[in-house]
């Protein structure tokens, strides 16, 4: 990556772990909340990292950035989570340069999602980029790459049917409830946590179960009230959690805490209770399974549910890959132009100096010399000359390295590079 004049660091890396090799417990150790991601940003700036994306979802945690060595990014992650370097190495993946670029395209377009065609990751990627931009570590490469991945994602969503049919973690949750709880429309359902997954699950519950006995609880009550108002649901205080669990048949936990929010000490009910934990890290303690009447199902188990919808989606993978190759090809072509950007910039600067000297000479020599008009004409000529050189360097049949060397030699250019 050094040749592209994007970063002072040698290479672009992706380091991370995902559902493919890391179970929910391990992913929980390496999950990053907003505060942890902010700390990584601040530390990155201190370390001189000039391009970084940090993403943490229920399925994966990744750092994509420029570094001299991937361990710089691995240490950043481990220093800000409860996971160790040794644990990370057991389940991790590390990609470099073109492989890292290809990986981000697959992740951002839903091909690497736990549920194929789930495009939730795109909003996470946007948030990631905005965070980096706020901290001044979203260089032109990061910005262009994010925009390209988002473009590919939009095209795949619009031009293929890879996201057709109702399949997502929230839908899988509701489907599991409908298949395992008799007379679901008459049961009491308690939703604890009204973040994005909680909201989506709530909408799916109302749409598919026709149940009106849904109660919402959130640590911040007004967030729950906004959703409740939309669907005319009941909202209870966080302090009422234990009481509400006593009367519910299905408890859905979608909180974003770093440690369990539900333990067996909170549960005092003798009737059957189904608990779905949609959180990473796990927000329901496994001790609840010691209670005879409690069934606990975690996000990973729900995500493994396959049906005709997912099988149908698989046939659109080749179409999606063609789109990715097209958009990625455009990105790589843009990247290649970065190789000669400093030379073109230096050439333009040199031509401008020559122009200024000549205009100054002519203005002293000719009494009726129109300096303003000469300046406009000269600038247009400079623009055409540099464009001609740029087009020559972009030509696939041209040895750009040899051409760059010749241009520098002929015009005696001094390059200003990172």
What features would you describe in this structure?
The chain has 418 residues and is an alpha/beta fold. The chain contains 16 helices and 10 strands. It has helices at 24-29, 34-47, 70-79, 85-91, 98-108, 120-134, 140-159, 169-180, 196-209, 221-231, 241-247, 299-303, 308-314, 317-365, 371-394, 400-411, and strands spanning 11-18, 52-56, 60-67, 93-96, 189-192, 214-217, 234-236, 250-253, 273-277, 294-298. A hairpin with a 3-residue loop joins β2 (52-56) and β3. α5 packs across α7 (140-159), α6 (120-134) runs antiparallel to α7 (140-159) and α14 (317-365) packs antiparallel against α15. The longest helix has 49 residues, at 317-365. The N and C termini lie close together (12 Å). The mean pLDDT is 90.
Attribute tags:
418 residues; alpha/beta; four-stranded antiparallel beta sheet; 16 helices
Helix/strand-derived category reads alpha/beta
What value does the Rg take, in angstroms? 28 Å
Q: Termini distance? A: 12 Å
How many individual helices? 16
Number of DSSP strand runs: 10
Helix content bin:
40-55%
Most strands sheet: 6 strands, parallel
Order of neighbouring strands in the sheet with most strands: 7-6-5-8-9-10
Mean of residue pLDDT values: 90
The percent range for strand residues is 5-15%
Q: Which ranges are low-confidence, i.e. pLDDT below 50, for 5 or more consecutive residues?
A: none
The shape is elongated
Secondary-structure element order, N to C: EHHEEHHEHHHHEHEHEHEEEHHHHH
């Amino acid at each position: 990556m050094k040749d592209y004049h994007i970063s002072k660091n040698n290479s672009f890396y992706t380091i991370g772990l995902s559902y493919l090799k890391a179970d929910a417990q391990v992913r929980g150790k390496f999950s990053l909340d907003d505060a942890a991601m902010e700390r990584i940003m601040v530390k990155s700036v201190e370390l001189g990292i000039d391009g970084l994306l940090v993403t943490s979802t229920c399925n994966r945690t990744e750092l994509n950035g420029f570094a001299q060595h991937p361990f710089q990014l691995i240490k950043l992650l481990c220093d800000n989570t409860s996971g160790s370097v040794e644990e990370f190495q057991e389940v991790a993946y590390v990609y470099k340069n073109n492989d890292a670029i290809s990986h981000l395209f697959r992740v951002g377009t839903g091909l690497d999602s736990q549920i194929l065609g789930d495009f939730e990751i795109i909003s996470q990627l946007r948030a990631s980029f905005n965070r980096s931009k706020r901290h001044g570590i979203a260089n032109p490469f990061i910005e262009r790459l994010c925009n390209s991945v988002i473009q590919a994602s939009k095209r795949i969503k619009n031009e293929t049917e890879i996201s057709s049919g109702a399949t997502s973690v929230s839908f899988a949750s509701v489907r599991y409830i409908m298949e395992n709880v008799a007379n679901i429309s008459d049961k009491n359902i308690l939703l604890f946590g009204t973040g994005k997954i909680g909201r989506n699950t709530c909408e799916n519950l109302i749409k598919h179960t026709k149940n009106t006995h849904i109660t919402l609880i959130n640590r911040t009550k007004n967030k729950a009230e906004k959703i409740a108002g939309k669907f005319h649901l009941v909202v209870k205080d966080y302090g009422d959690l234990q009481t509400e669990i006593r009367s519910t048949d299905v408890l859905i936990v979608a909180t974003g805490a770093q440690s369990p929010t539900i333990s067996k000490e909170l549960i005092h009910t003798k009737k059957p209770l189904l608990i779905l934990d949609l959180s990473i890290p796990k927000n329901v303690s496994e001790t609840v399974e010691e209670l005879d009447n409690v069934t606990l199902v975690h996000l990973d188990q729900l995500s493994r549910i396959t049906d005709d919808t997912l099988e149908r989606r698989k046939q659109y993978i080749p179409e999606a890959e063609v789109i990715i190759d097209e958009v990625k090809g455009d990105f790589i072509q843009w990247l290649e132009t970065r190789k000669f950007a400093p030379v073109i910039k230096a050439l333009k600067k040199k031509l401008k100096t020559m122009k200024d000297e000549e205009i100054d000479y002519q203005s002293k020599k000719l009494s009726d010399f129109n300096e303003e008009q000469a300046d406009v004409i000269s600038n247009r000529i400079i623009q055409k000359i540099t464009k001609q050189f740029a087009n020559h360097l972009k030509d696939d049949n041209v040895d750009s390295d040899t051409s760059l060397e010749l241009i520098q030699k002929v015009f005696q250019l001094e390059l200003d590079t990172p």
